[in-house]
């Protein structure tokens, strides 16, 4: 790893020296334009964007409420969320979740969770209001941004207007009635020709919400965040940016997990450098490095089991990574991207249990046990990639890429029982990914896309090294398997999108649809092992455990569709559909966490300073389930959300909303069940009932 960072430093020094030699002697009479760093994957250019990519970017313009993490994904077609409370929320796309999705910030920065129950998923380590847009690549159709199995999610944070020199800023605040929740954010920036600085800070206080049945759900949390971004322009064609952010979660209640979070502290540092317009063949070189650290403490202090056993677990995760990429053009029609990237994930920590009651007897002196959670483990992925874009006709673009990953994993402080199960030597894996796609412009407004991608994902640390811990939706203890093979997703997809201008009161019609099929190799799931019994509470059912294993036969298929009609100058109507079908043929059931068929109808009004919409959500029942994962069939539901926003004064934005207007009581199929909660059965946690919200922002 030290060698890799030496390469990063040498590349940075050499390209800086080269650029200084080429520096112009005359100063431009106009404001210098800042070059664009590789923070954005999808640029909005039809000919250069990856196939099956999309942007969701109305969070700044149309924000009407203080967002939690779920709000970033709930209204994006094809997405669902996996919920364990109001804080520990993970996105799911087309039935892919967790490390099956390549989730990153600003084109490559990552922060991995420390808690084995995912109390602190990657999406909790950034201020939600700071996200300006979400970029999505819907499958393994690019090799440039790390090993990708089910798709890429790039959370792009807000950037200042680099040509608007001087001091600027904004302050905002929001309120939600259901839980009496408050959120606020302040930001200040200064920009001149050579450098820029942006600083922000936010605070969030969410209370327990009530569901549509009037039941209060334990879900409160507090968090504070701040961030500083520094940018420096060496010349017109090279830029350096440093980004530092910290997030502090406190007193987080997790309705569907056995413990609560006492604190969750994260720190993320990233450095980006790019030199552009170098020469005729070598167009640009970009360098990125990042370091993130998560310190997490959880306990059962407020849970029923506290009377029998006090449990506290302190865990930590460190993620270090970087990337060097060169964009070169050996021929006019061929655009190549070649590079090296690295990601190292290291985790450690343990759990302390003070047992007060044993075998039904109250102990005069509680007995203390120490359990190793992560067993001081790490995974290092060093990747090499090349991707080419070839315009073999003015209206047809071919993209092809290949990637090799060298993955090293090791466990350095194993429990004795885990060491007895496996040969725990350091392990090295070699995986290969690739993609080929065609984008054809049938006309100026119609585009046809077809793609194949082979995406790989090596087993994550839970699947490799967890030892007798409850990490699933079911009550089983899980045991890792360090000998797992890497998952492979062979995904095929075809789609078409188009736009038509209309007349007679109708402005335009646009649509987009695609159909996909994935054949999985070595899909990883937990399977009951009847030869191994529970380690903790051995008489509690189920008495056996689950061990992570590879499946031989599994597949996924589905589609998404969208149509939008704009009419009468300011009105629009949009409908969206998404459907996923999965099959675990080894166990003759669905794969876990498969979302139901979902439909959305939205009627909207949009002007420059005033907008409103009504969104009707229809979610079907889901009886295609994974019983081995502990899933149960869930009923369908229908909800209505109303949103209104505008700019009543210059630089002022106001938004109000009523969510779940009819106070519907329901739960999402992907919600985990109540766990270790007084007065709650082991049923899926329910969603918030009617909720009034308001948001106010002032820019200066």
Helices and strands in order:
Layout: H1 2-21, E1 53-56, E2 79-83, E3 89-93, E4 96-97, E5 102-105, E6 131-137, E7 152-157, E8 166-176, E9 181-191, E10 195-206, E11 209-210, E12 216-217, E13 221-235, E14 238-252, E15 260-276, E16 282-299, E17 309-331, E18 334-358, E19 361-372, E20 377-393, E21 396-411, H2 416-421, E22 427-441, E23 446-457, H3 461-465, E24 467-469, E25 478-479, E26 487-501, E27 506-521, E28 524-533, E29 544-550, E30 554-567, E31 571-584, E32 598-606, E33 610-619, E34 637-646, E35 652-659, E36 691-699
Parallel strand pairs: 5-7, 25-29
Antiparallel strand pairs: 1-6, 2-3, 3-4, 6-7, 8-9, 8-36, 9-10, 10-13, 11-12, 13-14, 14-15, 15-16, 16-17, 17-18, 18-19, 18-20, 20-21, 21-22, 22-23, 23-26, 24-25, 26-27, 27-30, 28-29, 30-31, 31-32, 32-33, 33-34, 34-35, 35-36
Characterization of this structure:
The protein is mainly β. The protein contains 3 helices and 36 strands. The protein has helices spanning 2-21, 416-421, 461-465; strands at residues 53-56, 79-83, 89-93, 96-97, 102-105, 131-137, 152-157, 166-176, 181-191, 195-206, 209-210, 216-217, 221-235, 238-252, 260-276, 282-299, 309-331, 334-358, 361-372, 377-393, 396-411, 427-441, 446-457, 467-469, 478-479, 487-501, 506-521, 524-533, 544-550, 554-567, 571-584, 598-606, 610-619, 637-646, 652-659, 691-699. The chain has a 22-stranded antiparallel β-barrel. It has a 4-stranded mixed sheet with strand order 1-6-7-5, with no helix packed on it. It has a 4-stranded mixed sheet with strand order 24-25-29-28. Strand 13 and strand 14 (238-252) form a beta hairpin. The chain starts with a helix and ends with a strand.
């Amino acid at each position: 790893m030290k060698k890799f960072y030496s390469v990063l430093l040498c590349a940075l020094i050499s390209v800086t020296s080269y650029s200084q030699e080429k520096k112009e002697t005359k100063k431009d009479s106009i404001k210098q334009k800042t070059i664009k760093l590789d923070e954005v994957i999808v640029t909005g250019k039809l000919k250069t964007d990856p196939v099956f990519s999309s942007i969701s970017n109305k969070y700044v313009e149309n924000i009407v409420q203080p967002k939690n993490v779920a709000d970033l994904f709930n209204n994006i077609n094809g997405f669902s969320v996996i919920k364990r409370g109001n804080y520990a929320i993970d996105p799911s796309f087309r039935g892919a979740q967790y490390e099956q999705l390549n989730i990153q910030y600003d084109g490559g920065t990552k922060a991995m969770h420390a808690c084995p129950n995912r109390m602190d998923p990657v999406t909790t380590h950034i201020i939600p209001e700071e996200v300006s847009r979400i970029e999505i690549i819907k499958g393994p159709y690019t090799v440039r941004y790390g090993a990708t199995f089910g798709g890429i999610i790039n959370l792009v944070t807000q950037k200042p207007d680099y040509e608007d020199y001087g001091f600027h800023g904004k302050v905002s605040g929001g309120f939600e009635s259901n839980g009496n929740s408050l959120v606020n954010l302040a930001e200040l920036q200064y920009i001149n020709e050579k450098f820029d600085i942006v600083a922000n800070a936010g605070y969030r206080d969410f209370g327990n919400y009530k569901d549509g049945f009037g039941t209060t759900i334990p879900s409160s949390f507090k968090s504070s965040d701040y961030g500083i971004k520094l940018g420096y322009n060496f010349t017109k064609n090279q830029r350096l940016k440093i980004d530092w952010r910290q997030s502090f979660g406190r007193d987080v209640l997790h309705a569907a997990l056995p413990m609560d979070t006492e604190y969750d502290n994260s720190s993320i540092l990233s450095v980006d450098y790019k030199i552009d317009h170098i020469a005729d063949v070598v167009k640009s070189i970009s360098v990125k490095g990042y370091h993130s650290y998560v310190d997490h403490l959880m306990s059962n202090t407020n849970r029923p089991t506290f009377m029998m056993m006090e449990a506290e677990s302190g865990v930590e995760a460190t993620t270090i990574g970087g990337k060097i990429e060169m964009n070169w053009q050996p021929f006019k029609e061929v655009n190549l991207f070649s590079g090296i990237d690295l990601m190292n994930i290291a985790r450690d920590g343990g759990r302390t249990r003070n047992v007060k009651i044993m075998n039904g007897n109250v102990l005069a002196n509680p007995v203390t046990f120490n359990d190793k959670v992560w067993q001081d483990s790490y995974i290092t992925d060093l990747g090499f990639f090349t991707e080419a874009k070839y315009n073999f006709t003015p209206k047809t673009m071919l993209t092809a890429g290949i990637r090799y990953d060298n993955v090293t994993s090791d466990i350095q402080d194993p429990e004795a029982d885990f060491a007895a199960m496996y040969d725990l030597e350091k392990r090295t894996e070699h995986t290969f990914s690739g993609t080929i796609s065609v984008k054809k412009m049938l006309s100026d407004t119609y585009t046809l896309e077809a793609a194949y991608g082979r995406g790989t994902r090596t087993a994550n640390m839970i699947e490799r090294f967890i030892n007798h811990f409850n990490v699933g939706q079911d009550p089983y203890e899980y045991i890792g398997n360090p000998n797992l093979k890497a998952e492979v997703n062979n995904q095929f997809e075809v789609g078409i999108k188009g736009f038509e201008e209309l007349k007679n009161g109708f402005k335009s019609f646009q649509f987009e649809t695609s159909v996909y099929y994935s054949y999985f190799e070595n899909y990883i799931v937990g399977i009951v092992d009847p030869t191994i019994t529970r380690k903790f509470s051995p008489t509690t059912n189920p008495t056996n455990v689950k061990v992570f294993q590879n499946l031989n036969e599994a597949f996924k298929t589905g589609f998404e569709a969208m149509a939008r009609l704009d009419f009468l100058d300011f009105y629009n109507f949009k409908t969206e559909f998404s459907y996923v079908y999965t099959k675990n043929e080894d166990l003759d059931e669905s794969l876990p966490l498969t979302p139901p068929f979902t439909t959305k109808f939205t009627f909207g009004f949009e002007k420059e300073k005033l907008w409103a919409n009504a969104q009707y959500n229809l979610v079907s029942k889901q009886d295609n389930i994974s019983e081995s994962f502990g899933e149960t069939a869930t009923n369908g539901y229908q909800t209505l959300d109303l949103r209104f926003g505008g700019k009543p004064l210059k630089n002022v934005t106001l938004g109000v909303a009523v969510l779940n207007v009819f106070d519907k009581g329901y739960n999402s199929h992907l919600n985990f069940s109540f766990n270790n909660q007084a007065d709650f059965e082991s049923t899926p946690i329910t969603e918030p009932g009617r909720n009034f919200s308001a948001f106010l922002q002032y820019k200066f």
